[in-house]
Amino acid sequence: MDYGELFRMLLPEFIVGLAIIPVLALDLGPMKGGARIYRMSAAAGTTAVACALALYCMLGVDAHASLSQSMFDADPLNSIVKAIILLLTMLTGVLSIEVRFTRNIGEYYALLLLASVGMMLMVSTENLLMLFVALELSSLSLYVLAAYDGKERAATEAGMKYFLFGGMAAAFMLFGISYIYGLTGSLELAEIGKMLVANSESSLLKIALILILVGFGFKLAVAPFHFWAPDVYQASPVGSVMLIGSASKAAGIFALAKVLYVGFGNWPRGDDGGFDGYAPLIAAIALFSMIYGNLAALAQKSVRRLLAYSAIAHSGYLLVGVLAPPAAGYQSVIFYVATYGLTTIGAFAVVAAIQGKGEDITMANLVGLLQKSPGLAISFMVFILSLAGIPPLAGFFGKFYVFAAALKGNSGSTLVLAVVVVGIAMSAVSLYYYLQLLKHVFVREPETNCRRSVVNPLANKIVYLIAFAVLLLGCMPGALMDRVVHAVMSVVR
Predict the structure, then answer these.
(1) Which residues contact 317 (CB under 8 A, 6 or more apart)?
(2) How does pLDDT run across 298-310, given as a tens digit for each residue?
(3) Confidence of residue 272 (pLDDT cuts 50, 70, 90)
(4) Strand partners, 66
(5) Closest CA relative to residue 345, chosen from 85, 141, 147
(6) 98 or 348, which is more confident?
(7) Exposed site from 228, 242, 260, 284, fewest CB < 10 Å?
(8) Centroid of chain to Cα 335
(9) Contact 307, 53 (CB under 8 A)
(10) For the residues of 429-476, what is the DSSP string, one character each?
(11) Helix or strand or coil: residue 74?
(12) From the CB of residue 127, how many other CB atoms can be counted at a distance below 10 Å?
């Protein structure tokens, strides 16, 4: 084994993982007992530097390198998804500075980094066992982050619910992997894809696929595996929710797409009848998620809970992209999660600026935001309209790409056509509750005179920068899409 090549391939993960040491050493050493703002700034700065260094190490990755039969792959496609995860982690770390929820600051940022390492390993492997280990590494970190505000009973309850549902989903997934191994004698997705051609009619194969989808369904918070999401989004620390709602979703959907395209790609995908392939099952989950998520969001008064049900619906839209053939599916899904991750982090950053410690934020709390902080109000409008899919914002092209990819790759399929039609209809439904949020910000008059709020200047600038990026990607989607297409075409033939 060439250990130099091994080190080069794993260098981004090494950098992010080793950054845990200085984060903990600074906070538990020279800065112990210091002012919270300085400790948070030091930990956030170290996290940002580590993510930036890891990003730099991945620049210009054009060659495909593999370790131990796809146990770990380094190629442009994996690198661009890892770059998205690192960017979202960096933004989460910096925007967490102003959120007051704990004095255990070093441990918080160490868990952020550990979760990111798990997500990076998830997208870099084509081995089911390695995928499961990486998924559990990220999940265990996120369980703790969800319950990190130990003084808040609701956060502890949300974290416990997240952990219990996650443990059950992991058991289902591991059981499904054992079935796959029993059928094929391999854990490598490429080998599994070849072996499953002879077992395409096996009932055990269908059961294994369902069990694996349970694990991924929990990770993506798709209905009916979403029960943890509303409580976690509502009660957990905002910084934790930023990572759960953005980077975790990006890693999960890409790993699922890789499992389906590489491992089950040779299994015929059905159109309308029977259980022929994975398409009908993915389509059913997508339909349920889009319908349930959007309809449940209509009844919400809590802003964070509304965004949770919105996230369930967006997971359904992502699954529509997975119905497309590999090349188009990868392209549309990666663009969608990149833009959705940015808008989610931006929206929760605005929520964090409004929300007091230990309080839930309702729509009524949004009244007066325009008078208190016009810049945050306008940025919030950009994020919400992007989530709604309004042009010329990035969210519009995200939905357009997944719907177009599914239709173009399955021309003549009434099943896919029905899924896309329902998706467009549900997008129209979502516009109602998104506009309700903006109505409270821009239309409702505050009962008393509102003074401008004092918000951390750095956090403000980052929120404005994210809003500008969402607008820029909507006006120039090719700036990201061209790089994604190049990465996909270099791997998928």
Answers:
(1) 286, 290, 336, 398, 399, 402, 423
(2) 999 889 999 999 9
(3) very low
(4) 73
(5) 85
(6) 348
(7) 284
(8) 12
(9) no
(10) HHHHHHHHHHHHHHTSPPSSPPPPP---HHHHHHHHHHHHHHHHHHH-
(11) strand
(12) 23
